[in-house]
Specification:
Number of strands of chain A: 0
Number of domains of chain A: 1
Radius of gyration of chain A: 24 Å
Helix content of chain A: over 70%
Helix content of chain B: over 70%
Largest interface: A-B, 36 and 43 residues
CATH architecture of chain A: Orthogonal Bundle
CATH superfamily of chain A: MetI-like
Low-confidence stretches of chain A: none
Shape of chain A: elongated
Structural class of chain A: mainly alpha
CATH architecture of one domain in chain B: Orthogonal Bundle
Oligomer: heterodimer
Radius of gyration of chain B: 24 Å
Number of helices of chain A: 12
Distance between the termini of chain A: 37 Å
CATH class of one domain in chain B: Mainly Alpha
Structural class of chain B: mainly alpha
Order of helices and strands of chain A: HHHHHHHHHHHH
Mean pLDDT of chain B: 80
Distance between the termini of chain B: 11 Å
């Protein structure tokens, strides 16, 4: 590095004395504006409550998601019996199943989003930073993937991966990274002209290190926003695949599987459709409000 | 204009080719084959079948054979539906998918644009909130959930409409599938239209038009709507693609005999020819639709036209 250790120490000391006015960081500012957005604020609480319920609810419930209650088959929701959401044809507690399904849907969403973020960010940052012919080739490839009808591709992936849940959703994530790659590339194009990148290059940093240590951390804002918007899409895709019978299979279950089962018997046992559907809709609603809120909060136009 | 169209079409050929190659090898890497059945075939019969479809040849040779026949415009035979070629099967399902997708497309544009204009003109007033909230349900409730709800309400409870099937193809049978298919896109188009109309209405030339004393109605109709439609237009290409693949769900839920159902069955039974054929068909349709949208864009936007 250019600075010697002593000089850096002196600098750090000068900064610590705090003769600068305490500024508001971009993130703190955005966070404050997000909390002022009423829809996003409520959604944050709803989402948090749902996640906590899905994670810890099953430990408190007297019933689990697969053991039949021989005393209550097809029981409608009631407070006395302890089946607050009723039971299904096999006497399984719908509340326990819904919470378990929410867990699986959440897990899938987190894994697939993480995969799409990692691939998308690295791919986009590399294309954008190196540029030139490599950029052209890499982005052309993204265009090609866009031309593929997405659902067909997911079904093809599912044919390969068979019934393995985790692999399947790594597959979904691997398809979902395209838009992320485009957004990141666009951001990187403007970032690479900035002085601190030039400084890093002058200091002799390798390209790989500049991309991972200097470009990527500066992409966090747009990446978080887009990831929030990706999560509901993945939940919908997963539910849709499960609905068609391709996704999550027994003994596991997900919101999509539950909705599909519930739709078959909605005339006689509407609670089997209603509660999983309610959870799914609450999830999608709160996530999209938070996503929109984040986008507005980070948008410099209406600051 | 013609040169532009031809150049665009030519540039998509390598894209189609590479996509086809990826699909071909993904499909062949998958375990299982078209002739795996519960009761396994005698070995010599299986060998004959494989020889007939050239499945006994090395993968690379099969690949070039397949590409060769596609270039000649032949999608080959279906592997599991006897006596049918892929092209014949697609032709069988196509009318249903086209009617379904086409109606949903028109419905999505009409309602999307109309509700977007209302929201945009009455920005942040009660008319905007009511319209936006109604339209947003289409985005929040996914089609596989909306379909059973509508079936329950209009099919079972009220008995106004049939729950599923094609029937005689009359409007009654089409109503629910088309609505379910178009809701998401009504919502997307509406949001696009709202945003772009709000932006357009604050443009300088709108102020000019107003200052010349033109009535508000004329300002909107004559000056604001056409430029505000541009973002909607560029969404239509992808939207048509989504509608095409979205019909997969709707066809499955409502039991309609379109292409989507053939595709799902083909994927499940490893009907290589049919899967690849359907993928090619979908891609060609999407490419052509995107081209049409680009041409329409060039026609509407003078800035693009000049280039």
């Amino acid at each position: 590095m250019i600075f010697s250790t002593e000089k850096r120490k002196a600098l750090a000391a000068a900064f610590e004395k705090g003769d600068a006015v305490a500024g508001r960081s971009l993130t703190a500012d955005a966070w404050r504006r997000l909390l002022r957005n009423r829809a996003a604020f409520v959604s944050l609480w709803v989402l948090g409550a749902l996640i906590l319920l899905a994670l810890f609810g099953p430990f408190i419930l007297p019933y689990d998601h697969e053991t039949p209650d021989w005393a209550a088959f097809r029981a409608p929701p009631s407070i006395e019996s302890g089946h607050y959401f009723g039971t299904d044809q096999n006497g399984r507690d719908v509340l326990a199943r819904t919470l378990f399904g929410t867990r699986i849907s959440l897990l899938v969403a987190v894994i697939a989003t993480a995969v799409s973020v990692i691939i998308g960010v690295l791919y986009g940052a590399t294309a954008g930073y190196i540029g030139g012919r490599l950029d052209a080739v890499m982005m052309r490839f993204v265009d090609i993937m866009y031309a593929l009808p997405y659902i067909l591709f997911v079904i093809l992936l599912m044919v390969i991966f068979g019934r393995n849940v985790i692999l399947l959703f790594i597959g979904i994530g691997a398809v979902e990274w395209l838009t992320m790659a485009r957004i990141v590339r666009g951001q990187t194009l403007s970032l690479r002209e900035r002085e601190f990148i030039e400084a890093a290059r002058a200091a002799g940093q390798t390209t790989a290190r500049i991309i991972t240590r200097h470009i990527t951390p500066n992409l966090i804002g747009p990446v978080i926003i887009y990831a929030t918007l990706t999560v509901p899409e993945i939940i919908i895709t997963e539910s849709f695949l499960s609905y068609l019978g391709f996704g999550v299979q027994e003994p596991l279950t997900s919101l999509g599987t539950l909705i599909s089962e519930g739709a078959d018997v909605m005339e006689v046992m509407p609670w089997l459709l209603f509660f999983p559907a309610l959870f799914l809709v609450l999830f999608l609603l709160s996530l999209s409000f938070i996503g929109d809120g984040l986008r507005d909060a980070f948008d410099p136009k209406d600051r | 204009m013609l040169g532009f169209a031809i150049r665009r079409l030519l540039s998509t050929i390598p894209v189609l080719f590479i996509a086809l190659t990826i699909c071909f090898f993904i499909l062949r890497l998958a375990p299982g084959g078209p002739f795996d059945e519960e009761r396994s075939l005698p070995e010599n019969v299986l060998a004959n079948l494989q020889a007939h479809y050239h499945l006994d040849k090395p993968l690379i040779e099969q690949y070039f054979r397949y590409i060769g026949s596609v270039v000649r415009g032949d999608l080959g035979p279906s592997f599991t539906t006897e006596d049918f070629t892929v092209a014949e099967l697609i032709a069988l399902g196509l009318p249903y998918t086209l009617i379904l997708g086409g109606s949903a497309f028109i419905l999505a544009i009409l309602f999307g644009v109309a509700s977007g204009i209302i929201s945009g003109l009455y920005q942040n007033r009660s008319a905007d909130y009511v319209t936006s909230a109604t339209v947003m349900t289409g985005l929040i409730i996914p089609s596989f959930l909306m379909a059973p709800i509508l079936q329950l309400v209009f099919g079972v409870q009220l008995e106004w409409l049939p729950v599923g099937g094609w029937g005689d193809g009359s409007i009654a049978y089409l109503t629910l599938p088309v609505i379910v298919l178009s809701l998401t896109h009504i919502a997307r188009i509406s949001r696009l239209m709202r945003g772009s109309l709000i932006e357009t209405m604050s443009a300088n030339y709108i102020r000019t038009a107003r200052s010349k004393g033109i009535g508000e109605k004329l300002v909107v109709l004559r000056h604001a709507i056409k430029p505000a439609l541009l973002p909607v237009l560029s969404y239509l290409g992808p939207a048509a693609g989504y509608l095409l693949t979205g019909s997969l769900v709707v066809e499955t839920i409502f039991g309609l005999p379109g292409i989507g159902r053939y595709f799902i069955n083909a994927a499940l039974s490893r009907d290589y020819g049919m899967v690849l054929g359907t993928v090619i068909f979908y891609m060609v349709v999407i490419v052509i639709l995107n081209l049409l949208v680009d041409l329409a864009y060039a026609y509407l936007d003078p800035k693009v036209r000049v280039r």
